[in-house]
Amino acid sequence: MGALNMTSALIGVGRKIRRARRETEMSQRALGERWGELLGRRPFSQALVSDVERGAAELSETMLDALAQALGKHNDYFF
To answer: Which is nearest to 45 in space by CA: 31, 59, 56?
Structure first.
């Protein structure tokens, strides 16, 4: 996938993540905390959640799966 297409895909996924987070009325901070907890890690920062929602950060499949779980969505919701 070319750089432009990858950027567009990241932005599209980010928008869906933001929409799902807002549907659950969860703050970026709360999402970061839950997301980190599901991965057995420290909480992810509000800044990282913001970067993901803007399409400025790439995610591994594992990280995206945990994010979907934190939002109560199936991971195919993002695609």
So the answer is: 31
Alpha-carbon distance of 18 to 40, in angstroms, equals 23
| Inter-residue contact 21 to 31 (CB < 8 Å) | yes
Instruction: For 6-30, give the DSSP string.
Output: HHHHHHHHHHHHHHHHHHTT--HHH
pTM of the model: 0.89
- Average pLDDT value over all residues in the chain: 92
Instruction: Decide if pLDDT at 47 tops 70.
Output: yes
Task: Report the C-alpha gap between 8 and 2 in whole angstroms.
Answer: 10
Cα–Cα distance measured from residue 53 to residue 29, given in angstroms and rounded to the nearest whole number: 13
User: Which one-letter amino acid corresponds to residue 34?
Assistant: R
